[in-house]
């Protein structure tokens, strides 16, 4: 079996791998978040992680531009959408008159991501704000609407992302990767189509040394390329929606599960191994110190 993660003093953490008994089911999320170098051999093919993709100053300027724009509250967390509107509840993608094209700041981020290895010119972006223990359920980005690569830039706060196979597979288990501010994560191939990803809804992260990273405000910028040449109706903004029940009117709508519709298996792609760029390592830094550095 794979070795158990090690905690402070070289002792095995309480999250141990055990052979499955009886019917296979989803494995629990790991309790420890690992740096890329510690868990690269467990991550799916086609995943790349670029530490230090943005400098602290670049992060501050990009975040300031994002915050100067309007946020929406369609979900429990605040979001912004550009290029195309994705409806989490209807699971549809459409053009809408109130959805702008990517602003210059995100075009800049997209060009920078291309230089780091992102294979497309992004034409759709969702910006998510996570505060406290907010997260997102395990999902695979729509296979029939987006191209074969998805990029995610982390800004401001620390978090972790959990990868798990879409189908329980012997010898493959969930992996929890620590996401650093200013990093870029790119999912292609197996990591894009055959593994789910989620942001755990927790108050903080524990790394392999036992250090605790409390959750603060984190903003993620997702970069995608919408598959072109398909007919998409305008967004039905005027379509009446069913009124929520009275007792639910004061509550945010629950986080939807973004499970993909069954699609043909993607054509075999050249095998790629998880990789990390040679960008300089960012030592663990508190959000306060990060802002002070950027200033």
**pLDDT < 50 stretches:** 1-24, 236-265, 278-295
Count every beta strand, where a strand is a DSSP E run of 2 or more residues.
15
Please give the radius of gyration in angstroms.
Answer: 19 Å
Order of helices and strands: HEHEEEHEEEEEEHEEEEEH
Which shape, going by the Cα principal axes? Answer: globular
Class derived from helix and strand content: alpha+beta
Task: Please specify the SSE layout and strand pairing.
Elements: H1 36-39, E1 47-50, H2 56-67, E2 79-82, E3 85-87, E4 92-94, H3 104-116, E5 124-130, E6 136-139, E7 149-155, E8 159-165, E9 175-179, E10 184-188, H4 189-193, E11 195-199, E12 204-206, E13 212-214, E14 218-224, E15 275-276, H5 287-294
Parallel strand pairs: 1-15
Antiparallel strand pairs: 1-10, 2-5, 3-4, 5-14, 6-11, 7-10, 7-14, 8-9, 8-11, 12-13
Helix pairs in contact: 2-5
Describe the structure.
It contains 5 helices and 15 strands. It has helices at residues 36-39, 56-67, 104-116, 189-193, 287-294; strands at 47-50, 79-82, 85-87, 92-94, 124-130, 136-139, 149-155, 159-165, 175-179, 184-188, 195-199, 204-206, 212-214, 218-224, 275-276. The protein has a 7-stranded mixed β-sheet with strand order 2-5-14-7-10-1-15. A 4-stranded antiparallel β-sheet has the order 6-11-8-9. Strands 3-4 form a two-stranded antiparallel sheet. The longest helix has 13 residues, at 104-116. Residues 1-24, 236-265 and 278-295 have low confidence and may be disordered.
């Amino acid at each position: 079996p794979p070795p158990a993660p090690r905690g402070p003093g070289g002792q095995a953490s309480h999250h141990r791998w055990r052979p499955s008994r009886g019917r296979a089911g989803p494995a629990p999320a790991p309790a420890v978040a690992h740096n890329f170098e510690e868990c690269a051999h467990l991550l799916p093919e086609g995943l790349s992680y670029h530490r230090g993709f943005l400098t602290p100053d670049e992060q501050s300027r990009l975040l300031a531009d994002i915050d100067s724009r309007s946020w929406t509250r369609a979900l429990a967390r605040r979001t912004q959408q550009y290029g195309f509107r994705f409806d989490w509840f209807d699971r549809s993608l459409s053009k809408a008159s109130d959805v702008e094209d990517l602003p210059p700041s995100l075009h800049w981020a997209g060009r920078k991501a291309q230089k780091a290895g992102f294979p497309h010119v992004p034409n759709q972006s969702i910006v998510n704000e996570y505060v406290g223990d907010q997260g997102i359920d395990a999902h695979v980005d729509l296979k029939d609407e987006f191209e074969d690569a998805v990029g995610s830039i982390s800004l401001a706060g620390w978090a972790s992302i959990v990868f798990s196979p879409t189908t329980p597979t012997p010898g493959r288990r969930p992996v929890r990767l620590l996401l650093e501010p200013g990093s870029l994560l790119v999912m292609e191939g197996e990591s894009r189509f055959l593994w789910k990803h989620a942001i755990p809804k927790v108050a903080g992260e524990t790394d392999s040394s036992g250090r605790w990273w409390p959750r603060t405000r984190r903003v993620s910028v997702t970069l995608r390329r919408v598959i072109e040449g398909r007919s998409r109706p305008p967004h039905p903004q005027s379509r009446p929606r069913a009124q929520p029940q009275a007792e639910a009117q004061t509550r945010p709508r629950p986080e939807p599960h973004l499970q993909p519709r069954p699609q043909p298996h993607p054509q075999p792609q050249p095998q790629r191994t998880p990789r990390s760029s040679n960008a300089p390592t960012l030592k663990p830094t508190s959000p306060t110190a990060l802002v002070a550095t950027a200033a």
